[in-house]
Amino acid sequence: MFKGKSKYGFFIVTFIGALIIFSMYVFKFINSNEQINEQITILTNNIDLKSESLNLFIIIICAVTLFILFILNYIINKVIFKAISINVDSMKLATSILISYNLEFILANLLVTYMDIKLLFLTIILNLIEIGLIVILLSEELGRNKYKYCAIRLVLVIINATISNFTVIA
User: Fold this and answer.
1) Which of 14, 32, 44, 150 might form a disulfide with 98, Cβ 3.0–4.6 angstroms?
2) Nearest to 93 by CA among 141, 128, 150
């Protein structure tokens, strides 16, 4: 992909891009959800918080959330690759995850803007897209193990959707 210092620069730019797109998605989700919007309005009125401070706070929460999601996804992928005996350059894996995040968050922005879509369904769609993007971006490293990787990730998506569905119902 990239060599030397440029790969770290590309990683940082990709992370910043993912943060901007993810923050846009969060703001769009908040604005399109009347209940959340009302709760935030009540909260800001009760504690006398200015909208600029609230926006900065939401961006900081987005940055922390994105970082945690990235770390978890990185660890999950490393474990899967180790289980199916594949060696992937750490920076290439990290950058591939961030590139897939960028495309996922753009799609999430579009879906939230133009469709009334449930969060669980959106999560499943984005996870499936992420699997496809990772397979495309790391196709050389995966080789014949693409199907094993996809199968393991699909099992994780099903488990995630099942747990999410039961926690929403409960």
Assistant:
1) 14
2) 141
Cα gap 104→18, rounded to integer Å: 9
**CA atoms of 98 and 2, how far apart (whole Å):** 15
Find the distance separating the first CA and the last CA of the chain, reported in whole Å: 45
CA distances from 29 to 17, 88, 111, 142 (A): 18, 35, 10, 35
Q: Are 29 and 22 in contact (CB under 8 A)?
A: no
Tokens of 168: 């929403």
Distance CA 125, CA 93 (A): 21
Give Cα 62 distance to the centre of its chain. 11
pLDDT the model gives residue 170 = 43
Predicted pLDDT of residue 5? 65
- Greatest Cα-to-Cα distance within the chain, rounded to the nearest angstrom: 58
5-32 helix and 51-83 helix, angle to the nearest 10 degrees: 120
Q: Which band of pLDDT confidence, cut at 50, 70 and 90, is reported for residue 67?
A: very high
The whole-model pTM stands at: 0.80
Helix (H, G, I), strand (E, B) or coil at 24: helix
Dihedral sign computed on CA atoms, order 21, 66, 76, 74: positive
